[in-house]
Amino acid sequence: MKPKTADIVKDAIRELDYHPNFLGRTLRRLETMKILVLAPTISNQFYSRIIKGIQSVAEEEGYHIMLAVTNARRDAELEYIEMLQRKLVDGIIFLHSTLSAEELSEFAASWPMVLANEIVKDAEIPLVTIDNQKAAYEATRFLIDNGHRTVALASAGDLYYSSTLRRQGYIDALSESGIPYDPNLVTNEGFSFNAGRRSAEQIMQWSKLPDAVFAVADSVAIGMTSVFHQNGIEVGKDISIIGFDNNQIAEYYIPSITTVSQPQLDIGQKAMELLMNKLEDLSCENRHIVLPHRIEIRTSVKLSKSET
C-alpha cells in the first residue's frame, strides 16, 4: 500500500472509530467444518436413517460428519463434549443423552448443540422429535379399535424419556376405552431385538396370551415375533403386534410389522438445520420442532372386519 493510501485508510479508521473483529476472525480460522453425531448404539437401524438425514444437509453446507457411539454412557458424552470445547469439532447433535436437563442447558448455552429424536425433559436446547405420547396413544387405540381388549405393553421402562411418554400414551388409550391399566401386562426389557425376545418369553409364561402387544420399537416387535413363531404362535392371527419407528426391516419381515412411522430422514435434516442456526448465532432461540407421524398398516395386526 502506498504511503498516501495508508494515511487515507488510517484517517478513515479514526473517523469511524473502527475496531477489527478479532473474535470473528479467530472463530473463522478455528472452524473445523466437522460435526459430531453422538449415538447410543449403531445396532439399531433407526439411528442410521437419522444420520443419513443429518449428512445430507451437512454436505450441502460443506460440513463433514463424525459419528461416535456412547453406549448411553455419561462419561463418554462428557469426553466428546470436551472435543467441542477444545474446538476439535464445530457442533454436536445428540441422538440420545444421559445428561441432566441442567447440564445440557448449561452446555448448550455456550456451545452449538442439538437434540435429535430423544427428549431430555426441560432441557434448554434445540430439539427435533415427534409427539411420542400421542403416537403411542394412537397405536394402542388402533389395536383396541380392531377388537383387541387385552393389550400388553413391551416397554423399555424409564430407560429413555421417550419410553416413559409411550407408556403414558398406552395408558391414556386404555383409560379412554374403559380398559383398566394392568401393570402385570407390561414388560420392561429395553429397545433391542433381544429385549423383544425376553418380553415374548415372559408373555408365554402368563396364564393367557393377550390379544395384542404394543412394542415400543420395531426391534422389540421383531424379537417378539421370532420367539412366538418358534413356539407355534402366529403373529397376525393368534396375537397381534404393533411396533414403533418403521425401520426398513419391519416392512420386509414375515409377517410385516404394523408400526408407528417416524420421519427419520426429516428428523436428521431438521436437526442439522437447527445446528446451522446455532453455528451462525449461538444466541438464537432454542426451537423445538415436532414432526408428524403415521401408522403403517401391515400384517402383524389382525384387523376387524370393518378395517379389512
Structural write-up:
This protein is an alpha/beta fold. 44% of the residues lie in helices and 17% in strands. It is built from eleven helices and twelve strands. It has helices spanning 3-16, 22-30, 45-60, 74-85, 101-110, 132-145, 161-176, 193-203, 218-230, 248-252, 264-280; strands spanning 34-39, 64-69, 91-94, 113-116, 127-130, 151-155, 186-188, 212-215, 240-245, 258-261, 288-291, 294-296. The strands form two sheets. A six-stranded parallel sheet has the order 2-1-3-4-5-11, sandwiched between helices. It has a six-stranded mixed sheet with strand order 7-6-8-9-10-12, with helices on both faces. Helix 6 (132-145) runs parallel beside helix 7 and helix 8 (193-203) crosses helix 9 (218-230). It is elongated, with a radius of gyration of 24 Å. The model is unreliable at 18-29 (pLDDT under 50).
Would you tell me the structural class of the helices and strands? alpha/beta
**Backbone CA Rg:** 24 Å
Which strand order does the major sheet show? 2-1-3-4-5-11
Profile the largest sheet. 6 strands, parallel
Binned, the helix content reads 40-55%
Count the beta strands.
12
Low-confidence stretches: 18-29
Distance between the termini: 82 Å
Percent of residues in beta strands: 15-25%
Organism: Fumia xinanensis
Protein name: LacI family DNA-binding transcriptional regulator
Domain HTH lacI-type: 1-29
Pfam families: Peripla_BP_3 (PF13377)
